[in-house]
Amino acid sequence: MTAESFEPGPLPVAHAFEIEEAKERLAAAGGGYEIVHRSPGLEVGVYVLVAPEPDRQQPHEDDEIYVVLEGTGSLQVEDEQVELQVGHAVFVPAGAEHRFVGYEQLSVLVIFERRRS
């Protein structure tokens, strides 16, 4: 099932989604972002970065958490640098300037709190 199959209708009680397959697809394509789940108030995606391509993301309107699935690197958040490795997670508040640096290949699970209007 794709993330889009859950909009706009009601959600089932449980919804399984594949992370490893998305990570592999993105790595084979040289990196990128793929949504694996979307529901009211929440978005979960897989983000793969492959050097030398830089991380070009801009500040987001929503709080987010990154969970490192594969690789190592750093996340520059405003004036602070957080070193990351597999199993680490980091919170980034809405509106904060941030980008990944110092990676060869880095795969992260991205969890967004989507604000409801």
Overview of this structure, please?
By secondary structure, the protein is mainly beta. The protein has 1 helix and 8 strands. The strands form 2 sheets. A 5-stranded antiparallel β-sheet has the order 1-2-8-3-6. It has a 3-stranded antiparallel β-sheet with strand order 5-4-7, with no helix packed on it.
Compute the CA-based radius of gyration: 14 Å
Percentage beta strand: 35-45%
Biggest sheet: strand arrangement:
1-2-8-3-6
Sheet having the most strands: 5 strands, antiparallel
Q: What structural class do helix, strand and pairing data support? A: mainly beta
Extended strand count: 8
Termini distance?
A: 27 Å
Overall residue-averaged pLDDT value? 89
- Helix coverage percent of residues? under 10%
* Number of distinct helices: 1
Shape: globular
- Low-confidence parts, pLDDT < 50 over ≥5 residues? 1-6
- Helix and strand run: HEEEEEEEE
Topology at a glance:
Layout: H1 20-28, E1 32-39, E2 42-50, E3 64-70, E4 73-77, E5 80-84, E6 89-92, E7 98-101, E8 105-113
Antiparallel strand pairs: 1-2, 2-8, 3-6, 3-8, 4-5, 4-7
Task: Quickly list its features.
about 120 residues, mainly beta, five-stranded antiparallel β-sheet, three-stranded antiparallel β-sheet, 1 helix, 8 strands, about 10% helix, globular
Give the gist of this structure.
By secondary structure, the protein is mainly beta. Helix content is 8%, strand content 44%.
